[in-house]
Recover the amino acids of this structure.
């Protein structure tokens, strides 16, 4: 079957692009390897989601040494946004330029923040972002307010917010894509529960790509979604200049489709894998890979989850409301960027059992979970050509990665430890309330650090120079006229805030380019 447009993958990139192109008279084929996340009580079970990994792929990849890797990633309509924490940040304006880090240089993007700004605004509207403009000192200039008011803090986080403000810092409310209406709780779609980050939303109130983008697009009879449709490879015309066949494995059979424009959006690792699998006489190193850049510069952020345990309990239900970027660009004592501090969803004992932290003397896991504030720290991961996706002889994904910029992350952790010791005296325990910071090892047992690929990006960077990048500024492959990539692959640098809003905004930018190209 021939279509006007084929989109591969329905996550932050593909789902958003589909939404922008649907309803304009073009026949669009959407190919998604997964199905719908089943709606069931287990959606909100921390045991099912975190311990049993009920929704994660069972695929096995390999690391650089050939050891098996069980990736923490999800194949469903909506992609990883079904499970994300919906913290929807813009990159900082300076992130689009070259930035000097302790661990090396973060390269400039081929477009400026100003080029992206209107699309950030549109993406914030589409994904119902709740936030407070002007509170985050590193926030870039925006052409309008957030579409919805910030999500309020619960008392323990409000107290910490005030403590930090009292120290002269500028804590802020994290921009969140949840459909919460605090002024009208009875009508609010979101019920503000504790199982949001990492879980699918049972009541469809999280702004994920399925709910917000794919489902509405399917109202257009010209849109055809095929689920359980695994794109194996792309084949080109004899010249190698255009994709002519999309080879799909579906229900045990091989099917072939074609489209005037093919948009790959399978996630940074899987998109690289599709391109590498599509090697041919014209593209011997993989499709669109004359530069040998496909799969290289894999980035995933330098992340950690740290539990600050206090003698006072932390009864917070929805914990992801507070952020701190005062050390994003460094501090008076250290001139290099450190990164971003915010929260993960509230950890419970069940979740901790899957990756137990060092237990504080005299504490149980259950008690620690009830008394912890659970921080999420992100430092920038720098692009290294040797951190890369390749395929082994059987065609399995191999992910080779060596961490970098770790000193920045250690500095950030030390800052947090210092801040926790400077909290106001508590009425019950005085200055003794803070017990300490405990690192939660998310990856015990069969899970190892490399498996945490939630923030994967950078494997098909965009740029002006075809020798140093895979995609041009419109995210079109330099070497293939009708092939685009709109997932997180295009990032030339990873910055240190969560990636999804930038993927969504960029998909809207590329959609504008495609509308002009297709005259729709
Ligand atoms: C637990 C968790 C929490 C997160 N929290 C946040 C957060 O708070 N804020 C934030 O900004 N980001 C967060 N992220 C990251 C965010 O979800 C991703 O950055 C984003 O979803 C990536 O978008 P994408 O379009 O690149 O890929 P994806 O969303 O992964 O979409 C890729 C799609 O392609 C499909 N696919 C893959 N291979 C093929 C193939 N061969 N054929 C057909 N289809 C294929 C997949 O099934 C999937 O639907 C989180 C991620 C996780 C896992
Ligand atoms: S109800 Fe709200 S807080 Fe709970 S999972 Fe859904 S969007 Fe998240």
């Amino acid at each position: 079957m021939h279509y006007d447009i084929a989109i591969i993958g329905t996550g932050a990139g593909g789902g958003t692009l589909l939404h922008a192109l649907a309803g304009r008279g073009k026949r669009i084929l959407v190919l998604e390897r997964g199905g719908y996340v089943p709606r069931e009580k287990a959606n909100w079970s921390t045991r099912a989601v975190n311990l049993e990994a009920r929704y994660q792929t069972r695929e096995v990849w390999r690391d650089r040494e050939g050891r098996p890797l069980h990736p923490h990633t999800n194949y469903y309509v909506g992609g990883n946004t079904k499970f994300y924490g919906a913290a929807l940040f813009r990159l900082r304006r300076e992130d689009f330029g070259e930035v000097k880090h302790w661990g090396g240089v973060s390269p400039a993007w081929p477009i400026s923040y100003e080029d992206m700004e209107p699309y950030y605004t549109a993406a914030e509207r589409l994904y119902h972002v709740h936030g407070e403009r002007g509170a985050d000192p590193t926030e870039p200039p925006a052409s309008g307010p957030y579409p919805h008011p910030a999500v309020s803090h619960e008392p323990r986080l409000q107290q910490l917010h005030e403590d930090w403000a009292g120290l002269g810092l500028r804590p802020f409310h994290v921009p969140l894509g949840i459909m919460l209406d605090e002024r009208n709780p009875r009508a609010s779609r979101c019920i503000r529960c504790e199982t949001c980050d990492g879980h699918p939303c049972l009541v469809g109130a999280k702004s994920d790509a399925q709910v917000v983008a794919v489902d509405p697009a399917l109202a257009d009879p010209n849109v055809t979604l095929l689920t359980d449709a695994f794109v194996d490879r792309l084949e080109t015309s004899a010249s190698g200049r255009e994709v002519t066949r999309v080879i799909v494995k579906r229900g045990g059979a091989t099917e072939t489709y074609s489209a005037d424009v093919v948009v790959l959006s399978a996630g940074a690792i899987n998109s690289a894998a599709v391109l590498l699998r599509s090697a041919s006489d014209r593209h011997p190193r993989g499709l669109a890979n004359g530069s040998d850049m496909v799969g290289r510069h894999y980035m995933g952020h330098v992340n950690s989850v740290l539990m600050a345990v206090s003698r006072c309990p932390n009864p917070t239900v929805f914990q992801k409301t507070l952020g701190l970027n005062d050390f994003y660009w460094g501090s008076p004592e250290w001139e290099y960027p450190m990164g971003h501090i915010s929260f993960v969803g509230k950890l419970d004992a069940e979740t901790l059992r899957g990756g137990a932290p060092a237990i504080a003397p005299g504490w149980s896991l259950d008690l620690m979970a009830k008394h912890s504030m659970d921080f999420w720290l992100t430092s920038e991961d720098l692009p290294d050509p040797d951190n890369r996706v390749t395929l082994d002889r059987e065609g399995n994904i191999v992910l080779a990665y060596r961490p970098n910029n770790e000193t920045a992350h250690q500095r950030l952790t030390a800052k947090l430890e210092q801040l926790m010791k400077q909290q106001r005296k508590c009425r019950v325990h005085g200055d003794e309330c803070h017990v300490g910071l405990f690192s939660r090892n998310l990856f015990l047992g069969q899970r190892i650090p490399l498996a945490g690929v939630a923030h994967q990006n950078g494997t098909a960077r965009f740029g002006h120079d075809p020798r140093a990048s895979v995609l041009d500024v419109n995210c079109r492959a330099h070497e293939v006229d009708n092939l685009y990539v709109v997932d997180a692959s295009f990032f030339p640098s990873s910055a240190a805030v969560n990636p999804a809003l930038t993927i969504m905004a960029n998909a809207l930018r590329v959609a504008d380019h495609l509308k002009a190209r297709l005259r729709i």
User: Anything to note?
Assistant: The CA atoms of residues 348 and 369 lie 5 Å apart.
